Amino acid sequence: MKKIVAQALLLASLLPSAHAAIPTYDYKVVRSYPHDTQAFTEGLLYRDGFLYESTGLNGKSSIRKVDLASGKVLQSKDIPPQYFGEGLTVWGDTLVGLTWQTQTGFVFDLKTFELKNQFAYPGEGWGLTHNGKELIMSDGTSTLRFLDPKTFLEVRRIKVTADGIAVDQLNELEVVEGEIYANIWHTNTIARIDPASGKITGWIDFGKLYPDAGKGQNAENVMNGIAYDAEKKRLFVTGKLWPKIYEVKIIPRK
Predict the structure, then answer these.
(1) Residue 84 pLDDT > 90, yes or no?
(2) Which residues have C-beta within 8 Å of that of residue 246, sequence separation ≥ 6?
(3) 130-187: pLDDT as tens digits
(4) Residue 37: how many CB atoms within 10 A of its CB?
(5) Residue 120 belongs to some domain of the structure
């Protein structure tokens, strides 16, 4: 499993109160939906009325098409067991997925899940999203990489900071109304990131959403998974092995 570093522990204990100059947001649960408790969620996205999800762990990694209302897995494809599945995004008529430590990405047909291509990248793969022009990738550090969606080569990068302090453990990603939302691994916090500067402009505190997160026999059942329905302005969040996906509305903290 990913090694917890000192800064991750610091973030887990202090966020979002550590940086008072950065606003903290709360949330309101609009609705909840069933989620497969065997799904070790690494990537989540919404497209044309369905959720698409990637799951991790060697021998258990997959990509899935999921009915939001029922949680039923409508279509799935297993990833070869030597790969630990990570972030997932949609690009055109394809799904693009990362793997953790094997420096390999996959391109699948959106409709059939047929493997169309694969590509290589240095370092680890964590989260993946896009801004309409570039793929945006996290690798567990404080860096976000921007990739050419045709060649998968890095074209630029930004360093994510909060009040000048680098913030690492950036995990699952989603672009929401021009901002980058990022799960901070092993916390119940999502960071709102300015894609131009890398500065964190807000923290969203989900500390009370799922009290069992990070507890029990599997302490890796942490928050991870952000999807956005741009047409209806709906935001969905979940976690690894969680029983529900939550539709939430972000609200200012009073």
Answers:
(1) yes
(2) 29, 31, 32, 33, 209, 236, 237, 238
(3) 999 999 999 999 999 999 999 999 999 999 999 999 999 999 999 999 999 999 999 9
(4) 13
(5) yes
Question: What's the domain range around 131?
Answer: 6-252
Provide the token pair at 152.
Answer: 């998968």
| Residues 153-163: b if buried by 16+ CB within 10 A, e if exposed | eeeeebebbbe
Structural domain includes residue 17: yes
pTM for the whole structure: 0.92
Write out 139-161 in H/E/C secondary structure: CCCCEEEEECCCCCCEEEEEECE
- The model's confidence at residue 16, banded by pLDDT at 50, 70 and 90, is low
Q: What CATH number has the domain bearing residue 178?
A: 2.120.10.30
With H, G, I as helix, E, B as strand and everything else as coil, classify residue 9: helix
In a domain, 73, yes or no: yes
Sign of the Cα torsion 68, 71, 75, 77 reads: positive
Rounded CA-CA distance 42/33 in Å is 18
Q: For 90-119, how does the pLDDT look when each residue is reduced to its tens digit (9 = 90+)? A: 999 999 999 999 999 999 999 999 999 999
- C-alpha span between 45 and 54 (Å, rounded): 9
Q: What is the pLDDT of residue 123?
A: 96
Q: Is residue 1 part of a domain?
A: no
